[in-house]
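Tutorial sheet, problem 5. The two components below are modelled jointly, 228 residues in total.
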Amino acid sequence: AQSVAQPEDQVNVAEGNPLTVKCTYSVSGNPYLFWYVQYPNRGLQFLLKYITGDNLVKGSYGFEAEFNKSQTSFHLKKPSALVSDSALYFCAVRERTGGFKTIFGAGTRLFVKA
Amino acid sequence: EAGVTQFPSHSVIEKGQTVTLRCDPISGHDNLYWYRRVMGKEIKFLLHFVKESKQDESGMPNNRFLAERTGGTYSTLKVQPAELEDSGVYFCASSQKGFAGELFFGEGSRLTVL
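Model answer (structure tokens):
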């Protein structure tokens, strides 16, 4: 069965420092991989996705993610965190075959301190 | 362009009552999904429509949940009768054709069953 693990409930980082939000997955084949962000009282917003090609994917708001096939990971990164990046981040996967179902992790709350 | 809209934003009902949640997807999006997030847990897939047809309803918890998408436009999710464990935030999302497309989410409908 497909699953997504976000091992950290919360990540704390100082403004200006680099940040990493971790994600590992378990799914057959080579899935599509996504990151979404949720701000308070809002719906989830798409940040970036990996389909194929370069393992480093760039997305919105300066975020990027690195796909590692051998470690089945898709960690979200940003070189310099902003206070406004504080939000809830969800990793998600979708199999390339068998349907459109997207599976989400439990989310990681990012707190950026000024 | 209007985004995904959900109604109501918050509903408080007694155990045993009925609630109907509505979702209006982005115009032209054939794919419509329902998800649910219980406090602190992962966002769980409920079902997926392609136009008016149910493509995958493997995540529907039980027969107290009924989803419809008349005419391939808006969708409703009815819970009848509601139980305490049905409480959570119900998200609707839509996407364009194709396997690699990202999901566009509504702001969610928070259901509280007392």
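Marking note: The interface with chain B takes residues 4, 9, 32, 34, 36, 41-46, 49, 51, 90, 94, 96, 99-107 of chain A (CB under 8 Å). Full credit if you identified this.
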